[in-house]
Structure formats: C-alpha cells, structure tokens
Amino acid sequence: MATITLESKRRSPGLAAKRRKQALRTIAFMSPWLIGFSVFFAYPLISTVYFSFMHYDGFRPPTWSGTKNWTYVFEHYPFFWPALRNTLWLVVVMVSLRVVFGLGVGMLITKIKTGTGVFRTLFYLPYLAPPVAATMAFAFLLNPGTGPVNSILEKVGIPAPGWFNDPTWSKPALTLLALWGIGDLMVIFMAALLDVPQEQYEAAELDGASAWQRFRFVTLPNISPIVMFAVVTGVIQTMQYYTQPLIAGKVASGVIQGAGTQFEPGYPDKSTLTLPQLVYNLGFQRFDYGSACVVALVLFALSMVFTAFLMRRRGGLIQAGD
Amino acid sequence: MTQVLDRPVELKKTPASPAERTARRKALLEWVAIHSLGIAGALFFTLPFVFVFLTSLMSDSQALSRDLIPHTWEWGNYQRVFDTPGFLTWWRNTLVYAGLGTVLTVVSSVPVAYALAKFRFRGRNLSLMLVISMMMLPPQVVIIPMYLFWAKQLGLSGTLWPLIVPMAFGDAFSIFLLRQFLMTIPNEYVDAAKVDGCGDLRTLLKVVVPMAKPGIAAVALFQFFYAWNDYFGPQIYASENQNAWTLSYGLESFKGMHHTDWNLTMAATVLVMAPVILVFFFAQKAFVEGVTLTGVKG
Q: Any idea where the ABC transmembrane type-1 domain is (chain A) (predicted)?
C-alpha cells in the first residue's frame, strides 16, 4: 500500500494535489466535531486528571495535594462505597429484570394479533415520560401516606412497604419505575424477534418441539446479540443513573431545592446514592473539586470498560466500512 | 364462557375431526391468554398516568386524602400552575434550550456523520470509536472543568448558554445515529452526483440530506427530548437564577412551593409530560425508527 502511494505521488503531482484537497475536505466536514472533541472532551478530561491531584475549592488558587483526594474518596468519604454497592445492586437486579421484562413484553407484542398498534403505543408511552416528571409521579403513586398504590394494597390486605421512604424498598421502587419505562428495550427486542427466520420455527414444530424448546433453541440463539447489547447498554446507563434516584430521594425526604436548602443525596440512609450524585455532592455542595474529579475518573474508567466491551463485540456497533 | 368459545366450532357445517377441534380450541385459548396478558400490561403502563391525572384534578383538601377519584373536578388547578411565578418563563427557556439546541445539533452533526459514513480517510475508525466513547460517557465525568470554564472564565453561570453553545459542535449520539443512517444510502447516489459535477457540499445538501430526512427527523426528535428532559445541565448552570430554569428543573420546586399539595404538583407533572407525548404522536414513525437504528443495526 505504502509503495503504491509513494509511486503514484512521484508520478503525478495532480494526484498529490487531489489528496491534499481531500484531506482538507475531510477536515472541513469533521471540524465541528474536532472542535467539540477537543474543547468539551479532551481538554476537560485531562483537566479532570490534573484537578484530581490538586486541592481546589474554587476560591483560593489550586494547590498540589498529591494523592490526598484519592485516599480521602476511597477511605474516608462516607458516600463512596455505598454508591458503588448501590450501582452493583442496580446492575444485578435492575438491568437483568429490565432485559427479561423487555424481552417478555416484546414477545407479547409480537404475539398480540388484535389491536397491536394500540397495545404497542400504550406500552411504549411511559418510556417517553421525562425522567423528572416520571419520578415525581412515582414518588406520589408510592408515597406511604396518601399514595394510590399503598391505598390499594392495604384494601386488598397486603402489607404496604415504605417504598422511597424505606432503605430496603427504595431501590426496588426505582426498579419498578425503570420497568415502567421499558419502551426502548421493547422496541429493540420486537425488531429482533421479527427478524428470526420463520422457517426455523416451522422446522422445530415439525420436530415436535415444545413452546419452551422453541424459545430456548430457536428464539434465544437468534436474538442473543441483542440480549448482549441490552445488557451492556443497561450497565452503561446504570453508571449514568442520576436524575431518578436524586429526585426520588429529594421528594421522599421532603427537602426541596430553594435558597438555603442543602439536600444530602442518598435519602433514605444512602440507599439511593449513585456515582454521578457523588460528583455533584463533592463538587457543588462541598466545594471539594479535587475529590469530585477522583470520583469522575472512577466513573470514567467504569464506563469505558463497558464501552470497550460493546465496541469489541463481533458485529458490534461499528459497521464495517465500505 | 365455554359455550362462547365452542360456538364457532359448532356452527361449522362439516363436522371437524377431533384433532382439528382441539387445535382450534387451543388457538382460541392462546388468543384469550395473550390478550389477557396484554390488557394486564396495558393497565400497568397506563394506570400511573391515570392516577396522576385524576389527582391533578382534586381539590386541595381531597389531595391530602387517600381517595382515588376526585369528588369535584378542579380544572382550575391547571390555571393555578400557569399562574405560578416563573412557570411561563421556564416554559419559554425550555423551548429556547430544546429548539435552538436541536437546530444547532442537526446543522453541526450532519457533515460530521457524512464524512464518517462516506469519506475514506486515515483515522476514520478511530474517530468513530471516540464518538462512541463520548456518547457513552456520563456528563458528570467532565463537569468540574466544564463548570469552571463556563462559570469562572466566561461568567455564564445562571444562563443556559453553557448547555446550548456546545451543541453547535456536534453531538456524539446524533453523529452516531446519523452515520448509521447514512451508511444505508448506497454510494452510487453520491458518486452519480460527483459525476454530474456536484461539489462535496452540494452533494451533501442536494442529494444526501433529502434522502436522510427520516434519520435527521429522528435525531432532531431525540435531541429535543434530551433537552426537554435534561435535569443535570440546568441544575449545574442555571440553578442560581430562577429566571433561567427549565421545566424539568423547575417542576421539582412545585412540591416545595405547595407544601404537600400533590394536586398542583401532579398538574405541573402532567404539563411537563404532555408536550413530549404530543410530539411523539405526531412523529411516532421517525422516533421508533431511531430507536431501532441505534440499537439493532450493526
């Protein structure tokens, strides 16, 4: 390849000019992103690494503090490990339930023959509800005082949990909210299920396969890349989980934004803490920008591990070029 | 019930074989089971909306009770939400943030996506990988330097500009989605335009963009929803100035202003949800296409 390039360059100066023109063209078309990448990604990322070794409160100039911020976050900051444990809980329970439920709803929709469009739209709508609004709605629906869910549960005679006001029930309540907004996974699984070759089902049926066997040996192998995709993106979304746990905690605790109020995230009892909330807590409530950058880097490392996994997957996100 | 189920079989003139009968009955039972599950699902997905809406119409005193259905329908609650100081300003700010942000994102992301999809150049795959990395990155990772940049260096805290201006420099998710869409346009169209003497910019504007309309529509919708739903951005940059709040950010304060009156909070919640759902009904196809495009195609 290289020799050909060299030779052609030597032979025709016109081609070299064309190449230069093409390079300029590429740079021109890419320029918005090149600027965006440098100013809003590369520079702040390097800067985050720099600040993670500095003591900085935003008022006095930053001073070198070595690994102090790192040891503070890992050893003394009371929110770090609870947030990591919560993230692990959400990855194990919320992500897997969402994938199973999304697949189930997707299969149901493909089986429904009467009023399909209506069902599909109704199932999809909650996914569109803005996160703040959806969380406010669930904080109301599940509030132990006057919430309709507990009113109904008590009428039926089921002991009503404290949901967002009870540390053991706050994450299950968030999971319920996440299952309500299953629309994205439903659509993805629906498309995948419709792509499964119909002949394979017919062949399996001829061989006398039961419904479970058909699912296990025809459906699942065909859609496994999509299941994988759903799991990995689910994990990445969990790393970014911010608005819902924050709002749920705020509303349930009764502490509302306004002059002079400071909400300690994680209500009740640190059970809704997630890593992104720590960046806000450290940086914008405690004015400890250095430690906030440490958490930001942890968040960065975790997100990148799963993103790399997503990109390396065979037949992954990147289509082979032309 | 069994009678109803059996009737179509009995009505048949030629007597069906027993095997045929059981198969028919099985299919019917399956139909009933599937649709019962469907109705159960529909209740799970719609009842939260219904309860929120019903509560938004209750009187102040009833909102403190455990009633599910309003005694009197207080449509005036919505008027009271609109009369809340700031609400209309938040509405306007949200439209500016979402509208301007969407236009800037589309204009800046289309050429980048086109280059990534149709140009051959060194570093193309690396660029694409970096775009995906940016897309997957939580905004909190770079927020400290970004805040210091916008607030301390440019003095723009208390406005939405730190959220709008970056959209003029390409949005990773939009670039990725558009690139996926442009990959599906055959190269022959681009080449033909070149043969006809079109420059790159003309080819993009006259040939590619018209063909990519569904993809552009999906990107515009996603970006609009993103800005409408954004909580973290306004919390960082606009929280100190009530006049710069957006609906998503201001919504929460209703709970504080009205103490424990869930009725007004829920009325405000309905007003934040409604536009998004209305937009969806008008653009359902583009939206669902976008979800599948980013998810499945690969």
A: 84-310
